[in-house]
Amino acid sequence: MLTHQVERIKYHSHRLVKEANGICRFCGQIKLIEIATGMKDDEITELTSEQCDCDDSKAYAARKTQNEMVYERIDKLFAGLDDKILRVFYVTIPSLNQGLITDITINLGNGIKGRMRLDRNGFIKITKIDAGEALEQE
Ligand SMILES: [Zn+2]
User: Fold this and answer.
1) pLDDT tens digits, 7-42
2) Distance (Å, rounded) from C-alpha 118 to C-alpha 89?
């Protein structure tokens, strides 16, 4: 969660955090929130959308928190792979969280594939496929 990043920054130095108005992507409300200095407009919108009190925002924040554990599951499932390859999974997670994509399969070569998809509740599921066989699934 971007919110947690701002909290961590604030913990280390109050001077790096300031208040700003952000717009909730879901309901359009303008809210006064704490941001890290230097944040771009899209990051401020993301923060506001995590912190708004509308129902869509609350559901989004809950989903996003749950989906952040995906990073650890990727590291575990694909342990031993180059970090550059793992990063390909990481960069798609925000797009899955926002529902911009719902299913992606990455061919890692040697018959190994990684698939991430959204289930009907918006939670990210990840599967490792080896030679056409789904080996591990969470
Ligand atoms: Zn809202």
Assistant:
1) 989 888 888 999 999 999 999 999 999 999 999 999
2) 14
46 Cα–ligand 1 center, Å: 11
- CA of residue 14 to ligand 1 center, whole Å: 26
Question: Looking at the whole model, is its pTM more than 0.70?
Answer: no
Only one residue has tokens 């899209």, namely: 42
CA of 136 to the centre of ligand 1 (A): 37
Q: Which residue has the tokens 């390859």?
A: 85
Provide the domain count of the chain: 2
Residue 84 sits in the same domain as residue 57: no
The SS3 of residue 109 is: strand
Residues 18 and 37 grouped into a single domain = yes
Domain-ending residue, one of 49, 66, 83: 66
Distance 52 CA to ligand 1 centre (A): 5
Same domain for 8 and 28, yes or no, is yes
